[in-house]
C-alpha cells in the first residue's frame, strides 16, 4: 500500500511542495544568523567603546576637540581658483559627458511625489491594525485552547467552552477579526497613496471600524451562547450580525470608489484592481451565502462550497495580493517585475477560483460533471498562482542582498513561497485519489493553516512591519521581530507536517475499513505535535503584539560612537547620567 501511495502524483507533488518552505527557511536562517552575529559583535564593540570613552583623559578629550574642528573645516570654493571665471578655450569642460548616477550602486526607482498621509488617516489605519492585533491574540488563544483539548479532552465541562462552540469562535475571529481588520486598514493606506489623493471620507472609515467590531464581538458571544447559523463552516454568524459586517464593508467600498474616482493619476494601479474587486466579491459572497432562496437540499451544499472557497480566495487572498503589489515594490525600492503578469493573474484567478468550491465534495451526491468542473478549475489555478509567484520572486532580482539586513523581507519571501506551495497543494488535494485519502481528515485543517496562516498572515505581518514605522517613525526591536518570525514559521511547519502525516495514515486506515476508533488512537501523538506547533505560533503572536506596541512607542537604536563629534557627545551624556544633580 505504501509503494502505491508514493507512486501517486498527488502525493509526490505534495511532498515536494512541503519541502520548499523548509528549504527557504534554512536559507533565511543562514542569512539571518550571520546578520545576528554582526549585530552581537557591534553591541560588544559598543560596550568596549563606552568603557574607553569613560576613561578618556583630559588630554585625549582635547585632542578629539581639535580633531573635530579639523574635520568640520570646509575649504572655501574660491580658495584655490580665485575669483576669475574658468577658461575653456579647447571646449574640454563643456563637452564632458556627465554621469548622473554612480554606476556601482544598483539603480533604484525614484518615488512619485505624493502628498504625505495626514495624521488623521494614520490614526484610523493604526486603529484598524491595533484591533487586528487584538483579535489575533483573542482568536488564536481560543485556537490554542482547542489544540490542548485534542490532547486533554476533559479539560472542562462548561457548555460555553465546548469544542463545538469554540471552534467557530476561533475561525471567525481570525477571519473576520484579525485578517479582515488588517486588510481593510492597510487598504485605507494603499488606495489613497496610489491614487495620489486623500481618502474620500475618514468618517466613513470610522463607521466601518465600528460596524466590523460590533459584528465580531456580537458574533463571538452568540456562538459561545449556542446561537449560530446551524451548519455552514465559516458562516456560523447569524444573518443580522453578518449584515453589520457587510454594511461596514459596503461603506468602505463606496469610500474606496469615491477616492479612486478623484485620483490624480491617469491609470488605476493593479493594487486597486485587486482591493476593490475583493471588497466587491466579499459582499456578493455574503449575499449568496445568507439569502435563503436557493438553499434547499444539495443546493445548500453547493452554496457552502462556493462560500467557503470564495471567502478564502476572493476576499483574503485577492485583497492580500493587491496589497503585495504595492508593499513589495515599496520595500525593495524597485518596480514590480511585470505589470502584465499581475493582470494575467488577476483575470485568471477570477475565472478559475469562482468555479472550484465543489472540489470539497468529491464523491458526494453533487452531480459528477460539477465535481469534474471544480477539479479542472483547480488545475487551472496553476496559471494565476505561477504568474503571481513568478512576478513576486522576479521582483527580488537585484535585491536579494537586502534579505541579510531586513527584518521584513523574510516575511514577504515566506508568504510568497507559501502562496506557491499552499495554493498548488490545494490543487493537488482536489485530485480524486488524494481527496479519497484526505477528505474528512485533519489534512484539511493543515491545508487551511498552510494557506490562511502561511500566506495571508505572513503577508499581513510583512505589510504591518513595513507600514507602521512609516506612520509613527518608530522601528520594532529587530531581535524580537526575528523571534516572531522563527517561532511562527517553525511552529507552522510542525503543525502542518504532523497533521498531514497523521491524516494520511488515518485516511489509509479508513480505506482499509479499519474501526474508526483505531484512527482516533493513532492520531494521539500527531495531535500532541499539533499542540506543540500551535503553541509556538500562539507565543509568536504575543511577540508580534509587543513589536506592534514598540512601533507605536519610543524606541532607541544602538548607535556606536565613531566620529570625534559622536565620541564627545557620548562622553557628555555619560557624564550627565553619572552626575545627576539632586533637588
From TrEMBL:
InterPro entries: Cyt_c_oxase-like_su1_dom, Cyt_c_oxase-like_su1_sf, Cyt_C_Oxase_1. It comes from the Bacteria. Residues 111-583 form the Cytochrome oxidase subunit I profile domain. Keywords: Electron transport, Membrane, Respiratory chain, Transmembrane, Transmembrane helix, Transport. The chain crosses the membrane at residues 12-34, 124-143, 173-192, 204-225, 237-257, 269-292, 312-329, 336-356, 368-394, 406-426, 446-467, 479-501, 527-549. This is Cbb3-type cytochrome c oxidase subunit I. It comes from Chryseobacterium suipulveris.
Amino acid at each position: 500500500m505504501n509503494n502505491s501511495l508514493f507512486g501517486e502524483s498527488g502525493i509526490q507533488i505534495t511532498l515536494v511542495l512541503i519541502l520548499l518552505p523548509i528549504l527557504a527557511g534554512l536559507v533565511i536562517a543562514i542569512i539571518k544568523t550571520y546578520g545576528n552575529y554582526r549585530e552581537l559583535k557591534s553591541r560588544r564593540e559598543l560596550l568596549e567603546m563606552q568603557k574607553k570613552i569613560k576613561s578618556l583623559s583630559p588630554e585625549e578629550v582635547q585632542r578629539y576637540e581639535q580633531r573635530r574642528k579639523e574635520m568640520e573645516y570646509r575649504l572655501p570654493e574660491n580658495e584655490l581658483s580665485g575669483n576669475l571665471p574658468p577658461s575653456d578655450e579647447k571646449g574640454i569642460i563643456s563637452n564632458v559627458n556627465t554621469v548622473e548616477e554612480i554606476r556601482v550602486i544598483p539603480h533604484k526607482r525614484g518615488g512619485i511625489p505624493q502628498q504625505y498621509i495626514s495624521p488623521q488617516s494614520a490614526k484610523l489605519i493604526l486603529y484598524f491594525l491595533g484591533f487586528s492585533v487584538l483579535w489575533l491574540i483573542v482568536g488564536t488563544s481560543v485556537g490554542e485552547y482547542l489544540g490542548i483539548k485534542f490532547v486533554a479532552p476533559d479539560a472542562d465541562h462548561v457548555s460555553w467552552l465546548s469544542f463545538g462552540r469554540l471552534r467557530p469562535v476561533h475561525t471567525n475571529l481570525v477571519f473576520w477579526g484579525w485578517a479582515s481588520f488588517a486588510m481593510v486598514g492597510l487598504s485605507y493606506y494603499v488606495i489613497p497613496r496610489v491614487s495620489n489623493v486623500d481618502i474620500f471620507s475618514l468618517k466613513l472609515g470610522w463607521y466601518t471600524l465600528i460596524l466590523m467590531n460590533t459584528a465580531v464581538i456580537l458574533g463571538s458571544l452568540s456562538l459561545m451562547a449556542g446561537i449560530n447559523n446551524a451548519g455552514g463552516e465559516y458562516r456560523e454568524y447569524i444573518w443580522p450580525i453578518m449584515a453589520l459586517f457587510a454594511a461596514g464593508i459596503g461603506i468602505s467600498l463606496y469610500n474606496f470608489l469615491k477616492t479612486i474616482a478623484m485620483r490624480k493619476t491617469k491609470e488605476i494601479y493593479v493594487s486597486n484592481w485587486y482591493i476593490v474587486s475583493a471588497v466587491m466579491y466579499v459582499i456578493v459572497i455574503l449575499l449568496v451565502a445568507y439569502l435563503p432562496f436557493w438553499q434547499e437540499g444539495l443546493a445548500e451544499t453547493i452554496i457552502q462550497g462556493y462560500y467557503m472557497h470564495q471567502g478564502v480566495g476572493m476576499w483574503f487572498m485577492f485583497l492580500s495580493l493587491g496589497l503585495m503589489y504595492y508593499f513589495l515594490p515599496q520595500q525593495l525600492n524597485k518596480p514590480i517585475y511585470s505589470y502584465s503578469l499581475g493582470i494575467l493573474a488577476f483575470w485568471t484567478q477570477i475565472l478559475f477560483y469562482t468555479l472550484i468550491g465543489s472540489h470539497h465534495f468529491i464523491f458526494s451526491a453533487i452531480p459528477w460533471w460539477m465535481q469534474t468542473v471544480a477539479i479542472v478549475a483547480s488545475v487551472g489555478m496553476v496559471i494565476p498562482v505561477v504568474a503571481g509567484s513568478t512576478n513576486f520572486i522576479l521582483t527580488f532580482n537585484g535585491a536579494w542582498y537586502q534579505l541579510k539586513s531586513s527584518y521584513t523581507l523574510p516575511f514577504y519571501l515566506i508568504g510568497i513561497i507559501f502562496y506557491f506551495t499552499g495554493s498548488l497543494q490545494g490543487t493537488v488535494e482536489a485530485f480524486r485519489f488524494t481527496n479519497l485519502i484526505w477528505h474528512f481528515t485533519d489534512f484539511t485543517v493543515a491545508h487551511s493553516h498552510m494557506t490562511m496562516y502561511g500566506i495571508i498572515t505572513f503577508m499581513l505581518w510583512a505589510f504591518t512591519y513595513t507600514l507602521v514605522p512609516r506612520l509613527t517613525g518608530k522601528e520594532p526591536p529587530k531581535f524580537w521581530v526575528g523571534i516572531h518570525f522563527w517561532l511562527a514559521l517553525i511552529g507552522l511547519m510542525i503543525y502542518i507536517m504532523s497533521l498531514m502525516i497523521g491524516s494520511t495514515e488515518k485516511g489509509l486506515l479508513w480505506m482499509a475499513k479499519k474501526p474508526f476508533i483505531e484512527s482516533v488512537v493513532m492520531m494521539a501523538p500527531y495531535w500532541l505535535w499539533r499542540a506543540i506547533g500551535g503553541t509556538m505560533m500562539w507565543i509568536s503572536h504575543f511577540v508580534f503584539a509587543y513589536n506592534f506596541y514598540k512601533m507605536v512607542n519610543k524606541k532607541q537604536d544602538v548607535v556606536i560612537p565613531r566620529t570625534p563629534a559622536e565620541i564627545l557627545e557620548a562622553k557628555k551624556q555619560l557624564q550627565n547620567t553619572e552626575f545627576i544633580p539632586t533637588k
